[in-house]
Amino acid sequence: MTPPPAPEPTRPVSPAPAPEPVRAAPAAGDQATIGKGLYIKGEITGSESLYVDGKVDGSINLAGNRVTVGRNGQVAASINAREIVVLGKVRGNITATDRVDIRAEGALTGDVAAARISIEDGAFFKGGIDIRKPETKPAAASAPPAESKAESKAESAKAVPA
Fold first, then answer.
1. pLDDT given at position 145
2. Of the candidates 152, 83, 72, which has an alpha carbon nearest to the alpha carbon of residue 114?
3. What ranges do the domains of the chain cover?
4. Cα 32-34-39 angle, rounded to 5 deg
5. What are phi and psi of 64, to 5 degrees?
6. pLDDT of 21-48, one tens digit each?
């Protein structure tokens, strides 16, 4: 009579923990990886960060996320992301809303448009740099001139009747 109680506690315990860790692991990752044995030709878009250690030919558009080109990575593509880190080789124009970081072992041939850029000693870079300021500052700067134009129109209107 002792064998039946032993299997009952193990049945509910086994199924419950197994699905939870499997679901929690992908959510914690938030970064896709292209391994060094993969070659992708085409357009990459999405809503998570990307680590490229293989070859990519085409375009990478991950606005609001980070793109990291690993030491083995070879990218011949235009890249658009929030943050771009180059450890391998990139040939193409890159646009970052935040920053571009070219590490010592990295090589970039192409134009860069970003708010901030960092090029370490030993890195290779050939291309142009366009430093773009955040869009919130120009919007605030354009508001005061509009008010001053309205004031000058009111002053000129007062001057005409007098």
1. 45
2. 83
3. 7-159
4. 145
5. 85, 5
6. 333 333 335 889 999 999 999 999 999 9
DSSP class of residue 154? H
Write the CA distances from 28 to 11, 14, 25, 45, integer angstroms. 28, 23, 5, 20
Query: Any idea how long the chain is?
Result: 162
The two tokens of residue 59 are 């375009």
Q: Is the CA virtual torsion 30, 105, 92, 74 positive or negative? A: negative
Quickly state the pLDDT bin for 157 (edges 50, 70, 90).
Answer: very low
Give the CA angle between residues 140, 141, 145 to the nearest 5°: 115
The tens digit of pLDDT for each residue in 46-84 reads: 999 999 999 999 999 999 999 999 999 999 999 999 999
